[in-house]
# Entry
Amino acid sequence: MTLCSRVSLAACRAEMLARGVRDIGVGNQVLLVFGGSGTGKTFAVEEIARASNLVFSSFDGSGLSGNGWAGSSVEDALRQAIAASGGDPKRASRSICCYDEIDKVFKAGVAPHRLEVQADLLRPLGGHAVIIGGKRNYDGPPVTFDCGPTCFVLSGVFDGLSELAKRIRQGRPGIGFQSSVEGEKVHTDYRHALREYGCIEELCGRVSCFVRMPDVTADSVAQALVSENGIIKGFNQVLGERGILLFPQDSGVSLLSNHVAIETHTGFRGVKHLIGSIAEELLFEGARGTINLDAPMVRRAIERSNGALYGDTETRQSVEQTGGASADDDQDAGAGSEDVVGG
# Structure
């Protein structure tokens, strides 16, 4: 079952609840999406939410602390979901609420209030109603947030989680043939791995699906750049308001995908950052019409970044010498679909 299918399932369930159907055998979806930095975890969920006509909100989970302590609380993410829904709590309850970088409060020995934050997550992730506000003078009137229809996403790198699951899988005795419930066994392995990672048992049980994003490859970045709903189209929607259209050239796409994404290890995030820099420059110069996004334009943007993407002189010299071509162009395998296991 793919990430798209899980979000679609959440959307269908939210629609049924909105129509007053209460006897639904499927619980609210809690998806744990993990993978390396820049692999497009948040971007993928956001695009699927847009295609499913669901409101999407993302909250930085790395700064979460327990209720009553300085810092952000679990409820702040629900407040952000309400804000993204135009202040409508009912619409917000049928949205996708993402706790980004949440692995920082899962890993044992990292966050001082780690266990308290995880305990605070149990109620919303369990689909229960949560009272927001009304506890302090500056909170405003209390608002009830029904988490039953909400699809929650726990996103982060979760470094080492796959290795933990693999070790658990290798230690499990086999029975000599492929089991028809192998997918459920892998799901159980990830649950055990998440517990060893530092997650409390009750929260492990709330996760309905584990999604590992594939590693970034040049082919996957190139596809994301020029696809129908890709990165360049997103920028063109904004630039079009000022009469500008970025037209991708093969040389520019190659330089972005092979060098900006791969060699700097910034993935999709680095590519979006650099195209944003190009868009900013075009707006500043008052450009108009169709602008070719070619290798010279990308190289100028890299030079303007002053090493923000490339941390060493050797890599920058490599970009200048190759002109956007990669010696590994013919060896790129391309990104496979994401690994998904769910119960």
Remarks:
- Residues 218-327 form a domain with the Helicase, Ruva Protein; domain 3 fold (CATH 1.10.8.60).
- The chain has 14 helices and ten strands.
- Residues 96 and 151 are 5 Å apart (CA to CA).
